[in-house]
Amino acid sequence: MFLHWPLILMLSIVGLLLGSFLNVVIHRLPRGESIVFPPSHCPRCGARLGPLELIPVVSYIVQKGRCRHCRASISWRYPLVELVTAGLFLLFYLRYGPSPQFLFYASLATLLVPVTFIDLEHQIIPNSLNLTGLAVGLPLLLWLRPLTWSQALLGLVAGGGLLLVVATLSWGGMGGGDVKLAGVLGFYLGWPLVLLALLLAFVAGALIGLFLLATRIKGRRDFIPFGPFLALGAIITLLAGPEMVVWYLSHLR
Ligand SMILES: [Zn+2]
Question: 90, 8 in Cβ contact below 8 A?
Answer without folding.
Answer: yes
